[in-house]
Amino acid sequence: MKKSKKINTILGKAKFNTIELALIFAMALVFGVLIGEIVFGSGKQPISLTTSTSSELHEINDVYNTILSEYINDVDKEQLKEAAINGMMSSLKDKHSVYFNPTESEQFQDELNGYFVGLGVAVSKEKQDLVTVREVYKNSPAEKAGLKVKDGLLKINGEDVSKASTDEIANKIKGKEGETFTIIVRRDGQEKEIKATTGKVELPSIEHKVLKKDNKRIGYLTISIFATNTDEQLKEELKELEKENLDDLIIDLRYNNGGELDSVLNVASEFLDKKSPIIQIKTKNKTDIRYSKGNNNKKYNIAVLINKSSASGAEVLAAALNEQLNAPLIGTITYGKGTVQKTKQLADGTIIKYTIETWQTSKGKSIDGTGIQPTIGVKQSDKYYETMKEEDDAQLQKAIDTLLK
Q1: Which of 45, 89, 240, 280 stands the most exposed, by the fewest C-beta atoms within 10 Å?
Q2: Beta bridge partners of 223
């Protein structure tokens, strides 16, 4: 994808993880703070402190040059530039208007694109133990090389990493496509050598399964983010689910912080007809209503799971399914992110994001700062956080019972 030509529209908010995860090469930690609310992106345009004739920018340029030439200690030009941009963004007093440094910008693009170049595993570390593989992505270089969940990482290209952190491991594996790494892992008490070569890895944003209860078949679809390829993943996952002759469907949007607007619209269009509005985007002078492009030929009822971490794009989808299909929303109140941001990529590849508009639900309801109230409020059980088992998931079980009734 050529960044200078790609225009992204993004919905989201900060992503908070309770478990430290790292994607080998791509993301040492998921920089969910980069997922940018509703954002309209533009192409590259260089920034300059010297070409403008305004007195304000001349003063900034004067201070910049004075510090570089006369300050007693050495000054990093890049840090000085970033501090100046951060200062301007922070003066807006808007937590959704921010500057992303080069690393953040790259990780932002990876997560929203839905793929990255690397090995394709998620790793974590518990206290003083080894960094351990938690997940191996399907069809990834790691899977093809034979890396497995629970493998403990001992050495990378001959270097001892037994005491390394997840960030350090991720940084060591970073490389261009086609770079080969020799990794020594501890598996079942024995050491094993694995050679893995980096390549393109698709980030899964949707998972599905079939839940069976009282002779009913309920599809369970989890959407973790709206990346550029989430809508295509949805079609494939939904196709597999519908082969099971579903009676009902649960869409889990808990912990979904948003993503790309086009992806949200396409996902919503799988369940709504062309007459159904999905979102209203408001400026000072006009309201732009986006409609479904689908046919709404689904035979099953839908319930939606939401919580405090369901934000922006997830809120758009949840509200549209509730307002247009009367789908019950089960869980707790959502985050409440209803402003619109625009992204601008600077000449060095970094990004600024700033607020320009607001959005409302398909029926014109503002949720900014208030969130979406569930139609059936259910607080998660304490036991679930200990076991992470479906049978202890109070919100999921309530959704199942609601659909069965």
Answers
A1: 45
A2: 206
Q: What is the CATH number of the domain that holds 210?
A: 3.90.226.10
Tell me the CB-side half-sphere exposure of residue 308, using CA atoms within 13 A. Answer: 3
Q: Name the residue range of residue 187's domain.
A: 115-202
Would you call 341 a catalytic residue per the annotation? yes
- Alpha-carbon Rg for the chain in angstroms: 23
220: amino acid identity, one letter:
Y
Does 165 share its domain with 310?
no
pLDDT tens-digit readout, 366-376? 999 999 999 99
Last residue of a domain, one of 202, 218, 246: 202
Backbone angles phi, psi at 239, to 5 degrees: -60, -40
Q: Is 79 a catalytic residue?
A: no
Structure confidence at residue 25 as a pLDDT band (50, 70, 90) = very low
In angstroms, what CA-CA distances link 162 with 22, 91, 153, 167, 173?
16, 44, 6, 13, 15
Q: Spot the catalytic one: 337, 342, 353, 398.
A: 337
Distance CA 328, CA 305 (A): 9
Instruction: Give residue-wise pLDDT tens across range 203-242.
Output: 889 999 999 999 999 999 999 999 999 999 999 999 999 9
Given the residues 312, 324, 345, 362, the one annotated as active site = 312
Return mean pLDDT, the chain. 84
Say yes or no: 212 and 327 in one domain: yes
